[in-house]
Specification:
The protein has 19 helices and 19 strands. It has 517 residues and is α+β, with helices and mostly antiparallel strands.
């Protein structure tokens, strides 16, 4: 991360060479090689800029003195190169003091919350969270830089940072951009989301802000396409919200108790591939032994729902939920299959967890029991979602959509089919609820509130459903009209898919193309 010192500080340290000097830049990096590379780059930049500027100001006769006089380089040479040992140094920006600066720019490291412990180690992660308790542990790593940068700005000073595009969502947004805009910061220009042009497969956000007010419009960019040079648009706004959204700012919407009582769930997580059985093989096993029907269930994924004709499951799942080891062992073929696959994998994961916990214990921290708990029930799915399955029991059908999806496509699913964790499940059977969920209003709410994986929006209960303001006190006529529209929509979709041999995904993608549909 680089910092620019004031011009006054520069004058104290060096003669005037140009408007900007390497001695005005400061930085921290925990990689010694990165520090040396940054110093060399800054030193060479001075030499190259000096030579280029002088060459551009030569007249036809090559009047060197005229050129250097206009530049203010009189009596100055680009050499010797500056010594930047006191400017760019090895340090950890999370714990070491930052240099004083007028402006802060940087490209913090990208690391999702789910991989922080694996990448940094449990001891470092515990130390990080203890040092910065104001940032939710579920926030991405780069969020720490946004908050720390803002806290080090004085009134009128500026910062500009690149982060993963999750900085505008949920816990990451609350820890960083929410803090900036509520603590006197004004976002002056930003990119909501764009494809990173480098090697990393990631979508990023770019945010420039000032500590204080700035009059006039603020420009917000976004890249909607999937290619580096495609899909760009922008708008000039009076205010750029912390969600970096063009739409109404709903970042402060609160969960509604009536929504939190149930009705929206993540599907089941099988946890190991040995619990999955191809549909044809599963049906053969059930024909051989009808009792297997109680633990071998059709398992619907998001790809099945929108990517398969007729939206049928392509696999079954071995569901030993609520069965102890001896009960599960009675289903011999299935039990041996899981024993040969899931058991050694979970033993290995649990052993690795023990080693990580030893490292934590050395630093006085508590360890995790995540994989140890999986091992205790190794024959069962990682997350059987008992609450969800209890709600589905006795229902004829439920509503589902892909959990990671650009635009949610909802459909009814038979309750005899178990939902995979790639699905968000709504334990409702009525057409009115379906109509509201598939409505444009709900889609806009989803678009403004959802989190993302790369550029792919994600529908979850706590980000979208729990805070969604359902229509209040609709009349019977309105409910009937919405329900009728829902029935008509599903009928039309089925007819078009059958007529043109399309899946639901292909049908909806055709709507995104220009022209009448």
């Amino acid at each position: 991360m680089l910092f620019r010192s004031s011009a006054a500080e520069f004058h104290k340290q060096a003669k005037l060479i140009s408007g900007i000097s390497p001695l005005q830049f400061f930085g921290l990096d925990n990689d010694p090689f990165g520090v040396e590379l940054a110093k060399v780059t800054l030193m060479l930049a001075k030499k190259l800029a000096h030579d280029e500027a002088v060459a551009e100001l030569f007249d036809n006769e090559g009047d060197y003195r005229k050129g250097v006089s206009e530049l203010g380089f009189e009596g100055e040479n680009a050499l010797p190169l500056d010594n930047l040992d006191n400017n760019v140094r090895v340090g950890d920006a999370m714990f070491d003091p930052w240099p004083e600066a007028d402006a802060i720019v940087g490209n913090p490291p990208y690391q999702s919350k789910n991989k922080l412990q694996e990448e940094l180690g449990p001891a470092y992660l515990q130390r990080l969270r203890a040092a910065h308790p104001e940032i939710d542990g579920r926030a991405d790593f780069c969020v720490y830089w946004f908050r720390l940068a803002h806290d080090r700005l004085k009134s009128g000073q500026r910062a500009g940072l690149v982060g993963t595009n999750t900085i505008r969502q949920n816990y990451s947004r609350m820890g960083g951009l929410d803090h900036i805009v509520t603590d006197g910061g004004t976002i002056t220009e930003a990119v909501s989301s764009m494809i990173w042009p480098g090697e990393a497969v990631v979508h990023v956000s770019i945010v420039n802000w000032v500590k204080g007010e700035q009059a006039g419009p603020k420009r917000l960019y976004n890249q909607d396409g999937n290619l580096v040079d495609s899909g760009w648009r922008y708008e000039d706004l009076k205010r750029i919200p912390s969600s970096l959204s063009f739409f109404t700012d709903v970042t402060t919407a609160k969960s509604l108790k009536v929504n939190e009582r149930g009705g929206c769930h993540q599907g089941q997580t099988h946890g190991h591939k040995s619990l999955l059985v191809a549909a044809g093989e599963a049906r053969n096993l059930i024909r051989e032994n009808a009792g297997y029907n109680g633990v071998l269930k059709p398992f619907l994924t998001s790809d099945d729902l929108v990517g398969e004709h007729h939206s049928k499951p392509t696999r079954y799942v071995i569901d030993f939920s609520a069965k102890d080891q001896l009960q599960a062992a009675k289903f011999e073929k299935l039990f041996k299959r899981v024993q040969a696959g899931a058991l050694p994998a979970r033993e290995k994961a649990a052993a690795e967890e023990i080693e990580r916990n030893k490292e934590l214990a050395d630093s006085g921290k508590r360890g995790n029991q995540h994989h140890a708990n999986f091992l205790k029930k190794w024959w069962q799915m990682s997350y059987g979602r008992a609450d969800l399955m209890n709600e589905l029991r006795g229902l004829p059908r439920y509503i589902a959509c892909g959990r990671v999806t650009k635009r949610p496509i909802f459909d009814f699913v038979s309750a005899s089919i178990s939902p995979n964790d790639a699905l968000t499940v709504f334990t409702h059977t009525d057409d009115y609820t379906f109509g509201v969920l598939q409505s444009t209003i709900h889609w806009k709410w989803f678009d403004a509130r959802c989190s993302t994986i790369k550029s792919d929006p994600r529908y979850t209960s706590n980000t979208v459903f729990d805070s969604f303001p359902w229509p209040q006190s609709p009349s019977l006529k309105q409910v009937q009209e919405v329900a009728a529209a829902a029935v008509a929509l599903r009928k039309l979709r089925r007819e078009l898919c059958k007529e043109h041999d399309l899946t639901l995904r292909a049908l909806y993608r055709s709507i995104e193309l220009p022209g009448d549909h």
